[in-house]
Amino acid sequence: xxxxxxxxxxxxxxNILEKSKNNxxxxxxxxxxxxxxxxxxxxxxxxxxxxxxYASMTMGPVLCSTLCLIGQxxxxxxxxxPDYWSIYIKSDKTTVSLRHENQRSHEFSPMEARVIxxxxxxxxxxxxxxxxxxxxxxxxxxxxxxxRPYGILQLPICRILRFLGKGLEVYQALEERYEVSLx
Length: 183
What we know:
Helix content: 40-55%
Number of strands: 6
Shape: globular
Strand content: 5-15%
Distance between the termini: 7 Å
Strand order of the largest sheet: 1-5-4
Number of helices: 8
Radius of gyration: 15 Å
Number of domains: 1
């Protein structure tokens, strides 16, 4: 997907961090929770929240633009003003944390809020190591591919759809909804 929604992604990350100890979380766990939220939205509602594009890494599936914002992958994201990520979130080598406690209003539909809460209830207590084990287990996330020796492989949304049992009509509806080619 090419129309990354930084605003929605920042809202999601802030929501996750507000529920974490000291408003801080390991970046791997954040990336995995965001992936699981998008995946569950596709599974239940044929929609995505972040509009990020996905890749398989040795740690599991990741959201590429979000990984760049965290600073864990070199790339460029089209500049938007204001830069929501850096206003509300700070990142270092291993963690992501809120800059200011409780200063962000989360704008989620009731459907989105239910999916977020469900994913956090199911996976929010996992440690980063448990998260990696879960996300790289093909019984849990069959669309993930071990990227070795390359380090990273594109994870097209059509692959995710296929493993969720979704057909071409869902793919086409997503393309129309977001007015973008999903390749």
